[in-house]
Amino acid sequence: MTSKTEGSTPPKKLTPPRPATLQVNKLTAGDITASLKAGFSDFLARPLLSGFFGLFYAVFGILFVWCLVWLGKIWMIIPAAVGFPLVAPFAAAGLYEMSRRLQKGESFGWYEILTVMANQRKREMGWMAFVTLFIFWVWLYQVRLWLAIILQNASFSDFDGFLHTVFFTPQGWTFLVIGTCVGAFLSAVMFSVTVVAMPMLLDRETNFVSAMLTSIRVVTENPVVMLSWAAIISAAVLVSLVPAFLGLIFTLPILGHTTWHLYQRAVPPAEGETVRPEH
Predict the structure, then answer these.
(1) Which is nearest to 259 in space by CA: 204, 212, 191, 211?
(2) CA–CA separation, 159 vs 174, rounded Å?
């Protein structure tokens, strides 16, 4: 006699839900213009708090250069000043949060913004900081390498001597050409992986690899527009460095706020996507 086993039917194999597929919009020059206007408006809405982040960045740059002079690393001043903007996206995290709250009409003060920035250490932003600083380190290392290869017999006893060697000798011209090409490549890599990734990590619950891949998609699908934005950032930052980094007090906040609005236009929220929990 055969007995029939009774019981509930085993459940079908459950598959985890697929992550939301992010759409990347096509951008135009008008998106840059509109984002710049919105970024400038955010700066005017809270100029003291916005300017604080620019001032902090400028003071850090001044101290960085002073330390190089104190340590006798004269040759590092120019590459450090040129490569220093590579870490600007990470420094702008507070500006992204300000724009996010202004966009939502939320009230906030210094405490709320600084608290959000401090809480980023518990999220994926720390990994992006590592990526940013690593590329900056590679930039400085390759400058030192080409100096040793091309200008091996040169002496840099003072800053004027360094400038004369670099700008008025054949070896210096070779160094500038090679350094510019390598620097352009590293800057392109940095821009591609961070321009959208930084604000995205602050805004959404995602990992830093997905954020970087999305950022690269935005750049590759909008090469002309994003190259134009990169050129605007580079020109504005380099001009800001001339008056002893002090121009960054104004340009960094405006560029940071603008980047937030450009990110919003480039990567709209996906259906079913998990956004960052409110603090």
Answers:
(1) 191
(2) 19
The DSSP letter of residue 118 is H
Q: pLDDT tens digits, residue range 184-194?
A: 888 888 899 98
- Own/partner pairs for 242-246, CB < 8 Å, 24+ apart? 244/62, 245/57, 245/58, 245/59, 245/61, 245/62, 245/65, 246/58
Whether the predicted model's global pTM rises above the 0.85 cut: no
Q: Give pLDDT tens digits for 110-131.
A: 888 888 877 777 777 778 878 8
Asked if 180 and 174 touch (Cβ cutoff 8 Å), the reply is: no
Burial class (CB in 10 A: 0-12, 13-18, 19+), 20: middle
Domain boundary assignment for the chain: 29-266
Q: For the segment 59-74, what is each residue's pLDDT rounded down to a tens digit?
A: 888 888 888 878 777 7
What span, in angstroms and rounded, lies between the C-alpha atoms of 211 and 191?
Answer: 13
Q: How many CA atoms lie within 13 A of 243 on its CB side?
A: 9
**Radius of gyration, CA atoms only, the chain:** 23
DSSP states along 37-65: HHHHHHHHHSHHHHHHHHHHHHHHHHHHH
Query: Cα(197)–Cα(217) distance, rounded to whole angstroms?
Result: 11
